Hints:
alpha+beta; five-stranded mixed β-sheet
Amino acid sequence: MKSLRKIAIVLASAFIILQSCVISVQALSADEIKGYIDSGLEYKYSSANTHNADEFVAEVLAPKAGTSDSDWYAITMGRYGVSFNKSVYINALNQKLDDIYSNGISSVRITDLQRMALAYSACGADIRSVSGHNLLADCSYMRSADEMAQQGVLTLDYGLIVLDTENYNIPDNAVSSRENIISTILSIQLANGCFSADGKTPDADATAMTVTALAPYYENNKAVKVSVDKALEQLSKMQKSDGTFACWGKSNCESTAQVVMCLSALGIDCTKDERFIKNSDLLEALLSFKKSSGGFSHLYNGKENSMATYQALYTLVGYRSFLLENQSLYNFSQEQDADKTLSESVYAPDDKYNDENRGAEESYRIVSENSSLENQAESPLTQTSENSVENSTDAHNETSTKATAATGNTANNNSDINYIVRYKQGEEAPPTVGELSFYQLLHTLGIVLFLITVYVVLVLHKTQKQNFGGKNNKPKSYQKNKDKGKAINDITQTNSQENELPKEKLENKDSLKQNRRIKPFSKKHASKFSALNFSAKNSLSAVLSVCIIVFLCSCSVKTPEEYYSQNSEASEETVQVKIDCTTALDKLSDDLRDYIPTDGIIADEPVSYSDGDTAFSVLTKVTKSNKIQLDYTGSESSVYVRGISNLYEFSCGNLSGWMVNINGNYIQTSASEAEVKPGDTVAWRYTCDLGADISNAYKGE
């Protein structure tokens, strides 16, 4: 009984301790949340080499006004109450808007106009009259719900959000009403309660964003309440054990942030709702993506990412607004009660939220293999891969490396180009042993054997010195001292010294011998050890030689010229390879135009065919021979191409990236598994609209 009582006491104490830890995590105040927001903004200022909000807006945001990266930071800063010269950004938006209207508003997606409308509102402008245009009408009520639905549920979501930012009245001649938009949203909800960016695949981001848009109608509209409750039930089921949410199979900051946002919009504290508390709550899960710099990473073990940072920051602004006044991020009708400038001393929150101190368990590092969502391809693009990373519905990805690349179909002499394989720190978890190739294992084995051998040699050397008092007292010369007279004198002197030793020192004579300070050594022992030592040295030398050979055989050191000149053996049979980005020409940023030919054809030439060639292997042949930059992730059996010639997925919008077809048929597997045959034409094409602009609209299959 006593033992059972002790066990019960221990368990109760442990439970109390765990509960206290959970409470301490959930008890973050609005001021503590402010610390995270401040440090995130300070990170953006410093990383852009600016000193304050005004410089950041004028030098970094304004030149790219009208893009996701700039507009969302402006929305975050405006809603948070940061003091900056808003007219600078409004004027930059006006220039962008004028260009759009001069080309016709149908030239851009409706969501681009809706995002700009939110940015205008965050800067205090009246979107019913900006630069002579009624932006509110053109991105919401003067668009039919069916037209908006054709561009996806997010267009309907943001149309409703824009209308509700200031609770705008809708005129009688409007094409769409709030009720019409809401009913259209509810009609496209999936049977399981989720919403989808592509209309088919359940998606946490799209579901959370839709719930955020419907939140103002939750209490008074029964149909909305039923729909939202069903969506929340599914979101709870989709949440990972570590509290995060995934998109296209990878737990990420943005998906997690969107769920925090939708709960805040509903007036639900994400740290207290039991449906969304797994091993950690949602807030803890979101903050686990925070880096020590103040920025946020897309993946848990990733580096700072601009999109992840602004989504995390505006989510924290929304959560803080909920704590202070129970208001949503998108409620612009009331001025937020916040400091107008960043605090001079940025609050330093507890490091338990930093990923450096987060556990290294598998559930934090990679996602479970049992989830149906996680087993899908991780990119909506049809060159699929189990290892593709950094992709979400509203995601874009900054190009982190600008390697010099050839443009056009012929090689240049610049060898400062790299193939980028995304197994770097900050991209994804390193491969497990099962994913290592034979040569990688051989290389690793060689290093391990080499280190073990060196260690054994050092241990034997140290043991030899201890046994024989150093190299001048080897067994061979122990009984054959050339100076016999000196030996006799030494022995005599030693005996006389022993006679003069005090009694207590004489008593320690045996212990001194055991400690090898006075140790007799026989010829028999000497010969045995010499033979053993000689045999060990020979054996170790042989092992060391084998290690060096294995190590060298597993290495492959090449100069850039050797690397790019490596082609398969010449063959009369060829495969035509084309790399085409014509759809991106009018959407390229200035820094990308240096890498892309004016006609958008990066390469178009035949390559020698080899047995087993795939859509990916022939791509590597073309890029190597022409010294074109190539960035991919994954293993030999599952490769995902992220960027070619510095043109990356999301470089031209949230739905952009590379797709590949063979003889006009877009592949439905990894490019490294899609085999080709002589005479085939392999076309790598860049899409800006999830394949719709290259006759391959993504169907979520």
